[in-house]
Specification:
Blueprint (H helix, E strand, L loop, with lengths): L1 H15 L3 H21 L7 H16 L5 H19 L6 H23 L8 H30 L3 H28 L1
Helix pairs in contact: 2-3, 2-4, 2-5, 3-4, 4-5, 5-6, 6-7
Length: 186
Amino acid sequence: MNAVQERVRALRAEANRVSLTPLLVRVGVFGTVLVGLLLACPVEMLTARSLLALAVVAVLPAAGPRRGWPTFAALVTVGGWVVASAGYGRPIALWRLIAVAAALYLGHTLCALAAVLPYDAVVDPDLVVRWVGRAGAVLLATAVVGIVLTWLGEIGGDDGFRAATVAGLLVAVGLSGLLGWLLRRR
């Protein structure tokens, strides 16, 4: 009995040491993953039991960001998207595609931040603001490029798709060159 009481005391002491910023980052992981899951999965499948299962899937990466749970949650999100589009015939809407991709990216980057923050870390709030600001800039740039490429694809039928493909390849080559330059600059 003393061993059990000692474990309870140790758990209580650890819980009392939890600081607010790492806890908020993990809440952000949960919220982002849950939003992505809800956007990806078909509405016809959303019952009380499936909502509970999706909530559990969203809690797992928040509780264990260093493990394989973020990958599992991303795979469930992508699986929900595939089931919704292939199994239920939901048309692929650009806004939903961008929103699901944004939720996947934001969930991934918040898991990376949560993985390096111990529960009891004292963190400057500017660190989290800069981290989320960079992620927001990436999301905004990605959404703009996606919308522009979609617009290019709609102009001129098959020639529009060719122009969108060439523009997408140029963006990919430009970003690869930029990343290579940044790595050599170190």
